[in-house]
């Protein structure tokens, strides 16, 4: 089992990811795809007059503040345009893909945090009305049913709270929880950079190997959203996933290249 997470930032070649995925699926590999959609969500939110608001926690993690209107835009893009666009690509390639959000069947489930601590102008504030959380449970039974019947699941946030409320969850950490729950052999975190860079944005400063027992020591090299990827990698290897790879989704055969060792390998 291989869990592939592809991000939603500018420059990602979804066609290349889907062609590579389809070839490996037809060859008999078991895969699940998780995707993001942050770049398109930002564009649509701006166009709808409700621009995104990003907040930084006291520990330095950046995330989207998700009020109810933002959540509805998020669902429209992630569950609609992005998810169905990827499913259509895979269907045209002969893969019977099924697109679902973590809310469907409570595939991803966790506790709803309705407030968040954020640093603004040097002060820590508590912002209320947030719809976020962290994936704590994965409905592997539903995924096993789909896989057993020959369907390739294409998953996306949001998740469900324990009370059935939609919550925005980080896609990389959701993919890590999924990989742990399914006892995956590998977790691929594909984005618009070649891997974790020692001196971002210098792509020649790629860090090629991270020891599994030392992942969090590399957080200092991670910029912005890459911090969540490193955190997700740490959670995955601690949960028993043998390999986590930060790979490049901009061209070529992104999945095959990552599995062959291109990018940053955590093992």
UniProtKB/TrEMBL annotation:
Compartments, record wording: Cytoplasm
- Enzyme group, top EC level? transferase
Q: Where is this site: Transition state stabilizer?
A: 5, 229
Q: Which GO terms describe its cellular component?
A: cytoplasm
MF terms in GO: acetylglutamate kinase activity; ATP binding
E.C. numbers: 2.7.2.17
**GO process annotations (BP):** L-arginine biosynthetic process; lysine biosynthetic process via aminoadipic acid
**Keyword Transport found:** no
User: Sorted alphabetically, which InterPro entries does this protein's record hold?
Assistant: AceGlu_kinase-like_sf, AcgluKinase_fam, Asp/Glu/Uridylate_kinase, Glu/AcGlu_kinase, LysZ
Q: Name one Pfam family in it.
A: AA_kinase
Q: Which UniProt keywords apply?
A: Amino-acid biosynthesis, ATP-binding, Cytoplasm, Kinase, Lysine biosynthesis, Nucleotide-binding, Transferase
Which CDD domains does this one have?
AAK_NAGK-UC
Q: Does the keyword Amino-acid biosynthesis apply?
A: yes
Give start and end of each Aspartate/glutamate/uridylate kinase domain.
Answer: 1-246
Pathway terms, separated by semicolons: Amino-acid biosynthesis; L-lysine biosynthesis via AAA pathway; L-lysine from L-alpha-aminoadipate (Thermus route): step 2/5
Q: What does this protein do?
A: Catalyzes the phosphorylation of LysW-gamma-alpha-aminoadipate.
Entry-linked NCBIfam families:
argB, PRK14058.1-1, PRK14058.1-3
Q: What name goes with this protein?
A: [LysW]-aminoadipate kinase
Q: Which gene encodes it?
A: lysZ
């Amino acid at each position: 089992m291989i869990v592939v997470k592809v991000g939603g930032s500018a420059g990602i070649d979804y066609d290349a990811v889907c062609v590579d995925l389809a070839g490996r699926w037809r060859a008999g590999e078991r895969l699940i795809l998780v995707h993001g959609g942050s770049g398109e969500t930002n564009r649509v939110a701006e166009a709808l007059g409700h621009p995104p608001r990003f907040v930084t926690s006291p520990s330095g993690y950046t995330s989207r503040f998700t009020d109810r209107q933002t959540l509805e835009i998020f669902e429209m893009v992630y569950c609609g345009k992005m998810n169905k666009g990827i499913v259509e690509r895979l269907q045209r390639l002969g893969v019977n893909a099924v697109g679902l959000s973590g809310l469907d069947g409570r595939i991803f489930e966790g506790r709803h945090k309705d407030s968040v601590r954020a640093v603004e102008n040097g002060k820590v504030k508590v912002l209320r009305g947030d719809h976020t959380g962290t994936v704590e449970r994965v409905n592997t039974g539903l995924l096993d049913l789909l896989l057993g019947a020959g369907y390739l699941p294409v998953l996306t946030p949001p998740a469900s709270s324990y009370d059935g409320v939609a919550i925005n969850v980080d896609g990389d950490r959701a993919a890590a929880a999924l990989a742990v729950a399914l006892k995956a052999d590998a977790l691929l975190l594909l984005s618009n950079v070649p891997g974790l860079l020692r001196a971002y944005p210098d792509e020649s400063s790629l860090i090629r190997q991270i020891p599994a027992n030392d992942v969090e020591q590399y957080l200092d090299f991670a910029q912005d959203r890459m911090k969540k990827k490193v955190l997700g990698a740490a959670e995955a290897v601690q949960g028993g996933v043998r390999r986590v790879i930060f790979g490049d989704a901009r061209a070529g055969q992104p999945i095959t290249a990552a599995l062959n060792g291109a990018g940053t390998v955590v093992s």
